[in-house]
What does this fold into?
Amino acid sequence: MAGQAIPRNLRTASVAAERELIFAMGMDGNMDGDMGGGMMSATINGLVFDATRVDTTVQFDSVEDWLLTNTSPLDHPMHLHVWPMQIIEQSGQPVDTIMWQDVVNIPARSSMRVRIACDDFSGRIEYHCHILDHEDSGMMGSITAN
Ligand SMILES: [Cu+2]
It folds into this structure.
């Protein structure tokens, strides 16, 4: 990417797939812990991170739209490894600035739509909330391109 003065505009790309990632927080239902209450859970599409699971499979060299929905009362800065994102909508309103971002903040109880070119790398990578407490509580997923 070094030396690219004008970013490629993904708005003109054809979108191969759309998906939604829902970022949620709550207390997990397991009350048999020794602290008198449940642990915080931070999930993406209802799941805490599991290193043995692949959450998302994309087609290599395709462009995808992801709707990042945050149902929680806290912001979640979402970091996607390898592939930078372009924000195309914030809370349903178009965003015209063409900019690559490797972290996109999803404000509390809000949504961001991003477009991603899944190129240059095929294999398994991760996406996660950049707030360490949230990531440690499970807000992370894995993705492969093939
Ligand atoms: Cu978070």
In short: Residues 76, 129, 131, 134, 139 surround copper (II) ion (CB under 6 Å). The chain has one domain: 10-27+40-145. The mean pLDDT is 90. The helical segments are 132-136.
